[in-house]
Amino acid sequence: MKKEQIFLNVPYDRSYEGLLVSLVATVVAHGAIPRMTLEIPDQGRGRMPKLYQLLSSCDSSFHDLSRVGTPVRFNMPFELGLAVALQIQSKDHKLHVLEKEPFRVQRTLSDINHIDALIHHNSPRSMIAVVSGVLSRTTNVPTLLEIQTLQKLLMAGVVRLKSDNLTKSLFTVHAFKDLVALAIFEAQKMDLVS
Amino acid sequence: MATSTQGKGSDKKAAPKPSRRNVHVIEPMTAAEMWKALGLTEEHRKRAARISKELHRPASKK
Questions:
Q1: Contacts of A131 in chain B (CB under 8 A)
Q2: A50: Cβ–Cβ under 8 A, 6 or more apart, which residues?
Q3: ipTM of the complex
């Protein structure tokens, strides 16, 4: 048992925002904090060490491989590869693969056939259920209903979060941090976080 | 809690369920610990409080 930081490796596109909010709500409701590469400002050669450092500071990671169409997205499988390497080096790191469709990952990335993908069906509600299925906490385990309530509150606040940050996307460092701050604030009000 | 919706929908084959061995038990952080770990500031807290207030305002006052 340890205090967890959880690395989220997901597509940065607007159609994924509902699923991102579900992930953030579920992670925070379990008393852990979500981390993402968008926290790394450096786009140059210094990015890789920082990315690996961020990943290795996390006790577990979720990797969504559901974006398999065009434009081709290589960042998610690339970062999954880094997590697999980290897991080989340090058996403490736990990784989970997320997918929209059952069994598809067995065709798209057969090297990880030994990992059971968590299928979210592109549904925020299913995302909460499957991620909650692999997380637990020592005390005060949140119910799915509580996490859904938190997720809905956060979704209602997303428009304001974006306008405050002068952005149309949640996938900026400022919008993401405000989202997590709001999640912690609301989770505390719901007695999910002390 | 290990509720899963896997296998729902039109898919004929049920999706594999995660092994229970993969469930990790977290010692939950306090809000203050989360705040510190993410490097959140008083400004973040104020913005979160303001948005929260708006979210919980009765519909008639929105």
A1: none
A2: A40, A42
A3: 0.86
